């Protein structure tokens, strides 16, 4: 890769900074007669949707994970590591933003889909300190943040999941590293191997190239040029299609049902019909859940094999002794527990994740039950590398725990962890293993209180039990305290958690109310609104896209004909659209209006291009209207062309975008 003079200068300055740091350490340690250790390399291995109890060495005797088991034996495993949750169903996006920035959920920009320049990322910080940074695999945040973080990379997947229509895990749509950061749809290419194998290929290739360059002295490589490698697997996220021989390794008969298996969740938790929960029919049958778990385990074993390839490459290059390896999952998954399938809940199977660190400065063969968050990794790895921690980071370093300090002391880990899901679920867990989950769904509040010491599977709700009165009072107060500490926009001590009262839909009078309507494309079954007739029912929805009066098209354009039944003098036609980029809902890019007199053909009377969406556009409702000299007509046609697919900068790139429409308003002229 050719570098400009400016880029060469920046590279030299970065490497000079880290050389100076380690020369100072060399001088200090040398005076003591001890051989200093060079700056450690760092490699982060991050899986997608892997729950905490899916590692053989950590207690699951039905799954084969020999390479992760080896990391557990070589390092320190945190058996009560957590994520904080999310404000939308795709928890992996905020989870990755929290890991990468060291910031808790409500300190992210909006919902965490975009990492702004003001929030320093972990690889960006290491890069500024002189590390070579390399990224491969899933990036579920904005693309500008990727290139800010990594100076190199390959086999990069921008998006949330490998949709079957796009090739699935078997033929994933990927990008090579682009130094310009463009990453357009025209530069995507389709892989011919399983996603995990392609991501491991990229990491192994980088390690071999790094070792070869260091040995030959090319590019000034030597022991003072460490690396930071980020490998973000997209497995075991669905579609659950493990390749052979891993698919055959598990069958429905070879795996057990979860101890907290249930056919249905006992009450409405506010998210029973999100996409994840539609992967199996209701109620969940034992056979269906067993098959799903078997496929899930097969994918985890396949990822484990790819992790083994990367670790083997480190050892073959002679780099393993000076490389800190982090293995973690971005969030858990229900897979049949509590009658659920997804991660949109606050039970342990969804909020707890595997977390293992191994390498220099880390005690081997240790399992700790301290409460930690994934976003504690940023300050931990920075301290381990002898770097300062940026002021934007809010996590807590756990280096002392990696070195064996604080075990059993009151200072070890956090006193409690706080959980969030949208505005319908809040929870808190204490280090003495009490847990409270509170729900507020459509104004109905419920609570679950668990003593995890005797009930680790969260089956016995003690909230109303007289023997748990003290614990209930303590955790209720703690939940409010933690909510405030982490800047939760809800006020849990107020009625309805202080949620703003939903605005009632407004009524509007216009010539199209009650007219006959024809649609070229049916609305999506998830958000059908009132069907075609709902477009002219005289009710205008509020900005809450989940309201039943919104009508949604996924990846499709709107083409609607309104039959007024008689000729009238029409002077404008418009429609209301909602924009919510965090939910992948975009405004149309172009609208047009056609009109036709009785027995006549349609004639276009106006069209309009709308501004292209920008990353930071706020959510809200837009009324898009086209006015024209009045025409005597009995039919009007309104068309709206959406982007179809999420754009290159968006976290959902490569996936269909949504367009939500409400009332089609037909206005007569003032004299009509």
Which strand order does the major sheet show? Answer: 6-5-9-1-10-12-2-13
C-alpha geometry? globular
- The secondary-structure class comes to alpha/beta
Average predicted local confidence, pLDDT: 91
Q: Work out the helicity level.
A: 10-25%
Low-confidence stretches: 1-33
Oligomer: single chain
Q: Give a count of the beta strands, DSSP E runs of length 2 or more.
A: 27
Percent of residues in β-strands: 15-25%
Task: Give the biggest sheet.
Answer: 8 strands, mixed
Tell me the span between the first and last alpha carbons. 68 Å
- Overall radius of gyration: 27 Å
Describe the structure.
The protein has 672 residues and is an alpha/beta fold. Helix content is 22%, strand content 25%. The chain has an eight-stranded mixed sheet, with helices on both faces. Strands 20, 22, 23, 24, 25, 26 and 27 form a seven-stranded antiparallel sheet that branches. Strand 17 and strand 18 form a beta hairpin. Helix 6 runs parallel beside helix 8.
């Amino acid at each position: 890769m050719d570098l400009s003079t400016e880029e060469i200068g920046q590279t030299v300055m970065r490497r000079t900074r880290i050389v100076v740091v380690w020369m100072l350490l060399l001088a200090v340690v040398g005076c003591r007669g001890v051989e200093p250790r060079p700056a450690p390399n760092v490699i982060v291995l991050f899986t997608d949707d892997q729950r905490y109890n899916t590692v053989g060495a950590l207690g699951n005797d039905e799954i084969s994970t020999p390479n992760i088991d080896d990391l557990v034996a070589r390092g320190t495993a945190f058996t009560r590591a957590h994520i904080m949750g999310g404000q939308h169903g795709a928890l992996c996006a905020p989870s990755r933003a929290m890991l990468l920035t060291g910031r808790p959920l409500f300190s992210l920009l909006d919902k965490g889909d975009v990492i702004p320049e003001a929030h320093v990322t972990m690889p960006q910080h290491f890069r500024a300190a002189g590390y070579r940074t390399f990224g491969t695999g899933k990036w579920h945040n904005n693309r500008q943040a990727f290139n800010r973080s990594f100076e190199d990379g390959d086999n990069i997947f921008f998006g949330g999941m490998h949709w079957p229509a796009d090739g699935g895990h078997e033929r994933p749509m990927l990008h090579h590293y682009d130094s310009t950061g463009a990453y357009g749809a025209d530069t995507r290419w389709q892989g011919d191997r399983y996603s995990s194998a392609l991501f491991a290929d990229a990491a192994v290739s980088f390690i071999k190239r790094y070792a070869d360059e260091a040995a030959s002295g090319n590019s000034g490589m030597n022991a003072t040029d460490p690396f930071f490698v980020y490998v973000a697997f997209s497995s075991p996220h669905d579609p659950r299609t493990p390749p052979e021989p891993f698919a055959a390794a598990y069958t429905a008969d070879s795996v057990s049902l979860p101890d907290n298996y249930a056919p249905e969740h006992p009450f409405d938790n506010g998210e029973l019909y999100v996409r994840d929960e539609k992967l199996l029919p209701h109620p969940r049958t034992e056979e269906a859940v067993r098959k799903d778990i078997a496929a899930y385990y097969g994918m985890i074993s396949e990822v484990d094999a790819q992790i083994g390839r990367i670790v083997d490459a480190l050892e073959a290059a002679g780099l393993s002794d000076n490389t800190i390896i982090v293995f973690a999952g971005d969030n858990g998954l229900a897979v049949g527990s509590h009658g659920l399938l997804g991660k949109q809940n606050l039970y342990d199977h969804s909020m707890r994740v595997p977390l293992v660190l191994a390498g220099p400065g880390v005690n081997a063969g240790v399992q700790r039950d301290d409460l930690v968050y994934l976003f504690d990794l940023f300050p931990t790895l920075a301290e381990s590398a002898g770097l300062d921690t940026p002021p934007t980071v809010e996590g807590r370093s756990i280096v002392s725990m990696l070195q064996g300090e604080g075990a059993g002391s009151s200072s070890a880990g956090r006193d409690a962890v706080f959980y969030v899901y949208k505005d319908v679920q809040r929870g808190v867990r204490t280090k003495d293993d009490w847990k409270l989950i509170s729900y507020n769904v459509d104004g109905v509040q419920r609570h679950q209180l668990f003593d995890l010491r005797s009930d680790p599977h969260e089956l016995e709700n003690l909230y109303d039990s007289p023997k748990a009165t003290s614990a209930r009072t303590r955790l209720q107060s703690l939940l409010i305290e933690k909510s405030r500490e982490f800047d939760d926009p809800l006020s849990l001590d107020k009625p309805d958690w202080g949620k703003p009262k939903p605005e009632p839909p407004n009524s509007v009078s216009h010539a199209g109310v009650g007219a006959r309507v024809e649609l070229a494309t049916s609305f999506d079954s998830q958000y059908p609104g009132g069907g075609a007739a709902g477009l002219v029912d005289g009710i205008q929805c509020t900005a809450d896209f989940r309201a039943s009066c919104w009508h949604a098209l996924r990846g499709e354009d709107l083409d609607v004909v309104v039959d007024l039944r008689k000729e009238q003098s029409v002077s404008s036609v418009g429609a209301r659209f909602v924009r919510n980029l965090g939910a992948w809902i975009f405004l149309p890019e172009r609208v047009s209006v056609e009109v036709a007199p009785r027995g006549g053909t349609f004639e276009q009377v106006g069209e309009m291009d709308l501004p292209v969406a920008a990353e930071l556009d706020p959510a809200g409702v837009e009324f898009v209207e086209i006015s024209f000299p009045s025409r005597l007509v009995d039919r009007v046609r309104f068309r709206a062309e959406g982007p179809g697919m999420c754009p290159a900068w968006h976290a959902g790139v490569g996936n269909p975008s949504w367009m939500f429409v409400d009332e089609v308003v037909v206005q007569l002229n003032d004299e009509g």
